[in-house]
Design a protein that fits this description.
Blueprint: E1 2-6, H1 24-36, E2 40-45, H2 65-71, H3 74-81, E3 84-85, E4 96-99, H4 113-124, E5 129-132, E6 155-156, H5 161-166, H6 177-183, E7 187-188, E8 198-201, E9 204-207, H7 213-227
Parallel strand pairs: 1-2, 1-4, 2-3, 4-5, 5-9, 6-7
Antiparallel strand pairs: 8-9
Helix pairs in contact: 1-2, 1-7
Length: 228
């Protein structure tokens, strides 16, 4: 099993100077699901190199057994520190792709042409794709060959408006992800704030928030294995 993980390269919450990036738990939990399933893992980002980490995801309250495992795993730390540039990545080399969240993707992966092209290629070849939390922003500009939004008519989830309101960031983010997905024709649903909630529709797998990370990763592994 060859898996690609795509991380954000964006490190600032709008113009307020507060730092953001990818959420460690949303990377770590899936990474170890994939690793323990025997996958070969490649990590990429728009700019390559070390992607920014959301400082809030490093706070003690945000730590889990998977993040603690990651902090001691120098092989994983080195992989994250030396990500490939997205423009160097070809979907033909992978069985599936996973996008962790954090607020960063709202600013870069939502409009990054290399990411959009990659998602469109995975979709066209019917290869499993998984997105957690704000990472679903990477879907909003992806289209099928006839110009239809990839998310149109798809049952999916993402970080919700209510969860964004709870963080008091609705006026900071460039758009509300739930609204944007619905605008593009997605059949959006959500669970309780902060609780694991996942949806699978064909090759598209989505999770609402960090608590959904491992569940989404397990569904991705199952989807890949079922196609082999």
């Amino acid at each position: 099993m060859k898996l690609l993980i795509v991380l954000t390269s964006h490190d600032t919450l709008g113009e307020n100077g507060v730092k953001t990036g990818f959420w460690i738990e949303e990377f770590a939990a899936p990474y170890y699901v994939f690793l323990d399933a025997g996958a070969t893992i490649t990590i990429a980002s728009p700019n390559g190199g070390q992607p920014p980490v959301d400082p809030k995801s490093e706070l003690e309250a945000a730590q889990t057994k998977d993040t603690k495992r990651f902090y001691k795993d120098y092989t994983a730390i080195d992989l994250v520190a030396h990500t490939f540039k997205l423009k160097e990545i070809n979907q033909a080399d992978y069985d599936g792709v996973f996008y962790p969240g954090g607020h960063g993707p709202l600013w870069d992966l939502a409009t990054d042409e290399d990411s959009i092209n990659l998602i469109e290629d995975f979709n066209n070849y019917e290869k499993p794709m998984a997105f957690v939390c704000h990472a679903a922003a990477a879907l909003i500009n992806a289209k099928t060959p006839d110009g239809t939004p990839v998310v149109k008519g798809k049952n999916l989830t993402s970080f919700s408006n209510a969860e964004e309101e709870a963080l008091k960031l609705t006026k900071v983010v460039p758009f509300l992800l739930e609204d944007e997905l619905v605008k593009n024709g997605a059949i959006y649903s959500k669970g309780s704030d902060g609780a694991s909630y996942v949806k699978q529709d064909g090759v598209l797998i989505t999770g609402q928030n960090a608590a959904s990370s491992a569940a989404v990763a397990n569904l991705l592994v199952e989807a890949i294995n079922s196609k082999k």
